[in-house]
């Protein structure tokens, strides 16, 4: 079997939470890792939407499709050996993969932002965090491209990168 690719939707056996059995389910490959490991997130046909859910639509797939309307769950991550992948269903269009990766990055970096942190927004503007509401929303002082400075509310998904004290930048999305 060839190495799976980022963006492929694969089917594998998922164990039940109580480990009494398993069920075949689709998952999205988010990264390929050393040692023939892959990082995946769950895909479900249950339409339970929460702030992390990414719905899929008919036009989101290449080379196939899922059997039912489905939700990508980037908050349900796991790693697995490639050998447990039963088969590849299709590929997800890059825009949807990027959204899933951005949501994972948002989840992983959400707790890192503090008052005074400098960030770059997806618009290219620079901002300083003034207040964290604790739910992915912030009050920030935004330095607009026009030269204006505005205090406004932003959402975590608006953030492209975070400036670290050493002047390195942690990329917020792939």
Give your account of this protein's structure:
Strand 8 and strand 9 form a beta hairpin. The chain folds into 2 domains: 103 residues, SH3 type barrels (Roll); 59 residues, SH3 type barrels, CATH 2.30.30. The protein contains 1 helix and 13 strands, in the order βββββββαββββββ. The C terminus is likely disordered. The protein has a 7-stranded antiparallel sheet with strand order 4-6-3-2-1-7-5. Helix content is 9%, strand content 48%. With 174 residues, it is mainly beta.
Give the CATH architecture of the largest domain: Roll
Which consecutive residue ranges, at least 5 long each, have pLDDT under 50? 166-174
Task: State the end-to-end distance.
Answer: 26 Å
Instruction: Tell me the structural class.
Output: mainly beta
CATH fold label of the largest domain: SH3 type barrels
Q: How do the SSEs run, as a string of H and E? A: EEEEEEEHEEEEEE
- The radius of gyration computed from the alpha-carbon positions, rounded to a whole number of angstroms, is 19 Å
Number of strands: 13
What is the helix tally? 1
Which sequence of strands runs across the widest sheet?
4-6-3-2-1-7-5
- Compute the average pLDDT: 85
Largest sheet: 7 strands, antiparallel
Number of structural units classed as domains: 2
Form type: elongated
Share of helical residues: under 10%
């Amino acid at each position: 079997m060839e190495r799976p690719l980022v963006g492929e939707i694969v089917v594998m056996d998922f164990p039940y939470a109580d480990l009494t059995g398993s069920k075949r389910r689709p998952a999205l490959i988010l990264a390929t890792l050393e040692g023939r490991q892959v990082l995946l997130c769950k895909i479900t046909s249950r339409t339970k939407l929460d702030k992390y859910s990414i719905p899929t639509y008919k036009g989101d797939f290449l080379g196939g499709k899922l059997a039912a309307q489905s939700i990508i769950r980037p908050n349900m991550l796991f790693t697995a050996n490639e050998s447990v992948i039963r088969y590849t269903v299709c590929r997800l269009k890059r825009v949807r993969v990027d959204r899933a990766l951005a949501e994972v990055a948002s989840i992983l970096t959400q707790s890192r932002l503090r008052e005074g942190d400098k960030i770059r927004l997806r618009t290219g503007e620079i901002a300083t965090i003034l207040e964290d509401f604790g739910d992915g929303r912030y009050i920030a002082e935004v330095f607009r491209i026009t030269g204006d400075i505005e205090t406004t509310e932003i959402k975590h998904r608006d953030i492209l990168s975070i400036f670290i004290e050493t002047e390195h930048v942690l990329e917020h999305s792939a």
